Amino acid sequence: EAQVTQNPRYLITVTGKKLTVTCSQNMNHEYMSWYRQDPGLGLRQIYYSMNVEVTDKGDVPEGYKVSRKEKRNFPLILESPSPNQTSLYFCASRKGSTEQFFGPGTRLTVL
Amino acid sequence: DQQVKQNSPSLSVQEGRISILNCDYTNSMFDYFLWYKKYPAEGPTFLISISSIKDKNEDGRFTVFLNKSAKHLSLHIVPSQPGDSAVYFCAARQGAGKSTFGDGTTLTVKP
């Protein structure tokens, strides 16, 4: 089954404790991206990647890092999480100019 | 500056009637527009799209209209069904670049 998977689905952590949210897709898509969804603010792009080893900042990249060492994986790294990074995170992928496929979301709470 | 706006946070319609969701954009370089639907606890899923060379695209009960001169697009759902109750996001893109999303409209279809 074609899908985008994210782990973990739920995470509660404390300020400053490094964490990684994994994202994997099995559709051989070149393009992957991370979004955060906050009440009243829609989906805002954090980082995106056009292909392996090619990443770029989205609209709200501060406090996040990404890497794209393999085509299927695009982890999101929070080196020192802060409470303002409490949010619902979505990973997405697409091939060329087609629509995006989204993962199920990761709900992160930073205390 | 929000480049994609959905000015109605919510919309309530009766089952069987038409639902019309609206979206405005400011960037005239956008040439591809998409609608996504999101249920609670799930990631957004693609619904329908339209290229800027067209002014209408239909897929079953869903039709998207694009008015380039007004920088406006709308999604029509006819007839509306209770299962259509969800959050609808409008997104816009320039070529194969990143997508910019609106804040979403919560549609409630009453039986």
Structural overview:
The complex is a heterodimer of chains A (111) and B (111). The radius of gyration of chain A is 13 Å and the shape is globular. Helix content of chain A is 0%, strand content 51%. In chain A, strands 2, 4, 5, 6, 9, 10 and 11 form a 7-stranded mixed β-sheet that branches. Chain A is mainly β and 111 residues long. The model of chain A has no long low-confidence stretch (mean pLDDT 95). Chain B has strands at 4-5, 10-14, 19-25, 32-38, 45-51, 56-59, 62-67, 72-77, 86-93, 99-101, 105-110. In chain B, a hairpin with a 6-residue loop joins strand 4 and strand 5. Chain B is mostly beta strands. The termini of chain B are far apart.
The gist of it:
The complex is a heterodimer of chains A (111) and B (111). By secondary structure, chain A is mainly β.
- Which range does the strand content of chain B fall in? over 45%
Low-confidence runs of at least 5 consecutive residues of chain A: none
Order of helical and strand elements of chain B:
EEEEEEEEEEE
How confident is the prediction overall: mean pLDDT of chain B? 95
Largest sheet entry of chain A? 7 strands, mixed
Helix content of chain A: under 10%
Question: What is the first-to-last residue Cα distance of chain B?
Answer: 38 Å
Report the largest inter-chain contact.
A-B, 24 and 24 residues
Q: Radius of gyration of chain A, Cα only, in angstroms?
A: 13 Å
Q: How many beta-strand runs of chain B? A: 11
Instruction: Report the helical percentage of chain B.
Output: under 10%
Mean pLDDT of chain A: 95
So what's the oligomer here?
Answer: heterodimer
Number of helices of chain A: 0
- Determine the strand fraction of chain A and express it as a percent band: over 45%
